[in-house]
């Protein structure tokens, strides 16, 4: 009789380098963990691999010079503006250095009171207290400072991102507006740097000026430039590697997933699902930061991981249809209800309150929380029991 449900294990692995046989080494690490710790591998287990080691073994990197060359070719090399970059040293500082090298004058339009993923320049309470309407009020830096002073230090990092971003070039000027069209007051050459809203931002700027030269950040280094790496997501999902180089989001992830799935099948005889994962998609209730700074949670995964959970809400039945039952009688009635559930419970009251999110988003969040983002040394996560339920044997 089963006494546990879902388990998630971080698998300690070697420190992967460019050119390593990533899939082969992952299989070795999983088998070593199994043998050393005495657990079994099963059909329906899931192996998640962080995008970082996929990109590292691919050698998928780009320098500031390579970034600048592509941006200059597409936006002209004179004046240009970037709209809605996130406030992140890891995610954007090296990109900003490359962007500033690509032009004579760079206007950086920040959204406020915070960025797309919840990093705050100023608190929403201070915006209210100052009588500012963030939907209509736009500022240059002097105007923004006149209203909010120097109260622009990030509560977690201790960084003033206005000053930090200006430090990447004498040609940088910071402006503030939540209207993407505001940048057109300064330049017609625009790079949309937001993540999940980038297509809408692009449409709004082009609608305001059909002659504007507008690009998205996922269109920069979406092919190799001067020997750089590249990604189908361009610069989206990149991370700082050195002061002058970024690791790009990995490419060709579907081929890697297929390779890993085949090697696990060969080594174990089990049909183990596989996925590449990046940021989880959850929100910090204290800081208000939404974790997902990558373009997607999972750029590639095996077919069984497509879709959403199809679950009954057990407490709904315990409080209603089975309210008069208890003990083993209640347990058996619940198991029978689960076994008889419809194949698709969308819109059914029986599933009300369950999580209507993509499986890969849920699994990617679990992987991200398990592996962490620092020094755990577990870039591979083994999830077991995910497709079981209360009625499973």
List the helices and strands and how they pair.
Blueprint: E1 7-11, H1 22-37, E2 46-50, H2 51-58, E3 61-63, H3 64-75, E4 79-83, H4 89-101, E5 105-110, H5 124-129, E6 139-140, H6 141-148, H7 161-166, E7 172-176, E8 189-192, H8 198-208, E9 213-216, E10 239-242, E11 245-247, H9 253-268, E12 273-277, E13 300-301, H10 314-319, H11 327-339, H12 359-371, E14 380-384
Parallel strand pairs: 2-12, 4-5, 4-8, 5-7, 8-9
Antiparallel strand pairs: 1-14, 2-14, 3-11, 6-7, 10-11, 12-13
Helix pairs in contact: 1-9, 3-4
Task: Tell me what you see in this structure.
The structure is a single chain. This protein has 393 residues and is of the alpha/beta class. 33% of the residues lie in helices and 15% in strands. It has twelve helices and 14 strands. The strands form three sheets. The chain has a six-stranded mixed beta sheet. A five-stranded mixed beta sheet has the order 1-14-2-12-13, with helices on both faces. The protein has a three-stranded antiparallel beta sheet with strand order 3-11-10. Strand 4, helix 4 and strand 5 form a beta-alpha-beta unit. The longest helix is centred in the first third of the chain and has 16 residues. The radius of gyration is 24 Å and the shape is globular.
């Amino acid at each position: 009789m089963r006494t546990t449900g879902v388990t998630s294990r971080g698998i300690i692995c070697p420190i992967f380098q460019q050119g390593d046989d990533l899939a082969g080494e992952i299989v070795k690490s999983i088998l070593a963990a199994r043998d050393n710790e005495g657990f079994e591998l099963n059909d329906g287990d899931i192996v998640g691999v962080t995008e970082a080691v996929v990109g590292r073994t691919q050698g998928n990197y780009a320098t500031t010079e390579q970034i600048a060359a592509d941006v200059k070719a597409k936006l002209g090399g004179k004046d240009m503006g970037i709209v809605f970059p996130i406030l992140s040293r890891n995610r954007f500082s090296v990109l900003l250095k490359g962007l500033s090298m690509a032009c004579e004058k760079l206007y950086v339009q920040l959204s406020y009171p915070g960025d797309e993923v919840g990093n705050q320049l100023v608190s929403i309470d201070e915006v209210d207290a100052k009588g500012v309407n963030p939907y209509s009020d736009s500022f240059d830096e002097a105007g923004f400072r006149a209203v909010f002073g120097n109260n622009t230090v990030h509560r977690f990092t201790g960084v003033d991102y206005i000053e930090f971003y200006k430090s990447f070039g004498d040609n940088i000027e910071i402006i503030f507006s939540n209207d993407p069209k505001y940048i057109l007051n300064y330049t017609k050459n625009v790079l949309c740097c937001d993540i999940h809203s980038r297509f809408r931002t692009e449409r709004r700027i082009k609608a305001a000026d059909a002659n504007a030269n507008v690009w998205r950040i996922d269109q920069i280094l979406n092919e190799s430039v001067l020997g750089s790496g590249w990604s189908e997501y361009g610069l989206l999902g990149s991370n700082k590697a050195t002061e002058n180089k970024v690791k790009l989001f990995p490419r060709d992830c579907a081929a890697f997933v297929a390779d890993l799935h085949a090697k696990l099948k060969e080594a174990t005889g089990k049909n183990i699902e596989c996925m590449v994962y990046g940021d989880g998609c959850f929100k910090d209730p204290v800081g208000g930061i939404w974790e997902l700074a990558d373009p997607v949670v999972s750029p590639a995964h095996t077919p069984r991981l497509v879709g959403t959970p199809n679950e009954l809400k057990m407490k709904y039945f315990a409080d209603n249809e089975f309210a008069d039952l208890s003990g083993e009688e209640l347990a058996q009635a619940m198991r029978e209800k689960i076994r008889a559930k419809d194949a698709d419970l969308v819109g059914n009251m029986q599933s009300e309150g369950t999580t209507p999110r993509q499986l890969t988003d849920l699994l990617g969040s679990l992987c991200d929380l398990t592996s962490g983002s620092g020094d755990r040394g577990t870039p591979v996560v083994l999830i077991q029991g995910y497709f079981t339920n209360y009625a499973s044997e």
